[in-house]
Amino acid sequence: MSDPALKYRTRSDYAFFQTYRTRWSDNDQYAHLNNAIYYHLFDSITNAYLIAHCSLSPTQSRRIGLVVSSHCSYFRPLSYPTVLELGLRVNKLGRSSVEYEVAVFEEGEEGPAAVGGYTHVFVDSEIRKTAGLDEETRKGLMKLLRTPSASPSVQSKL
C-alpha cells in the first residue's frame, strides 16, 4: 500500500493507543529501529486489543486471525531509547476479515514516523477454514472502524 495520505495521519485518526518503550536490541546496525520491529509492534497492539476488547484468546478461542497481507510506509527513523505511542484503527471490516492500520508515533509527536498494518482472515482454530466473525469480535472491531480515505484538509497537503 503506497498511499501518500498515510504520512499526514494524526493521533485523532486512531481510536486505541498503546505505549512501547524501545529496547537497545530494537536498533539495527545503522542505529535505528530495524524494520522487523515495526511488524512486531503492529502484531502487539492488534493482539492486545483483540484480547482486551474482543474476548479473543490466541490459545483458546474457536476463531483465530491469520495474516494474509501486510505493509509499512516509513517516514522518518526512530531509535533507542525512544518511547513510542502506537495508534490502531480498522479501515475495513468484512464477514471474516479485518484490515488494521497502525501508526507509530514518537512520544509527544503529532505526526507518525511510520504507518502500516495488515489484514487478518479469521479461521476456525482447528480446521483452519474461513469462519465468519462472531458478534463479540465484530462489536469490538466496530469501535475501531474509520473511513480509510483522507480528510479534505489532508488531501490539500498532497
UniProtKB/TrEMBL annotation:
Residues 31-110 form the Thioesterase domain. Transmembrane segments: none annotated. Keywords: Hydrolase, Isomerase. It comes from the Eukaryota. GO terms for molecular function: fatty acyl-CoA hydrolase activity; isomerase activity. Gene3D superfamilies: Hotdog Thioesterase. It holds the Pfam family 4HBT. Belongs to the 4-hydroxybenzoyl-CoA thioesterase family. This is Thioesterase thiol ester dehydrase-isomerase.
